[in-house]
């Protein structure tokens, strides 16, 4: 039975690709999943799969960098959303690829190619890593430069109203955000301010490593969390350092506190 690993930083995309592969190639055994290039390299060394489906853009080592490290240990299939130029480049080289989102008709073409590679003699060239010829490797390097992701920038300051005054508040000083129907409360250790931006927008603009969304109406600074408790109704509540109020955690966000 042929084996494969899927490497993509998006869980939904890994699940979707696994499902689609199961439809067009039910004999393929997906033996592992990786969230980044480093995990992909480690899994290839451990599990020695026939194929690895590598997302081109991932945190840490990219798919391109991971493919170079994997070499000919596994046949590489690149996963990309950049069909505008990636497809043309891939079609010109000995490189297998899957487009995001994976569609059955196009995925079937890739699977047919992969089955052919499995049937090829052991010394025959395979896609990815050390078996890719110089011209294809150069093409991949150019592609990697084109799609290199700029580092995402997050809000550093919040402009908020306190009475008739307007304040510029550094985000690291904010303990939590809590919305009602019209406004969002910005709570610091010293004062409370108001803004009109809803929590759902703030969640997209703030660093997710600094602010956790614990409720559809609440974001909390992880450095301000003292702990989590439960009330007599069974609700989980976040305790804030040096403050008496507690913030309710909705069920869909409880996973954030499993390690606490």
Automatic annotation (TrEMBL):
Keywords: Phosphoprotein. The modification 4-aspartylphosphate is found at residue 55. PROSITE patterns: HTH_LYTTR, RESPONSE_REGULATORY. SUPFAM superfamilies: CheY-like. Coiled coil: none annotated. The keyword DNA-binding does not apply. The keyword Phosphoprotein applies. GO terms for molecular function: DNA binding; phosphorelay response regulator activity. It comes from the Bacteria. Residues 3-115 form the Response regulatory domain. Residues 158-260 form the HTH LytTR-type domain. InterPro entries: CheY-like_superfamily, LytR-like, LytTR_DNA-bd_dom, Sig_transdc_resp-reg_receiver. This is Response regulator.
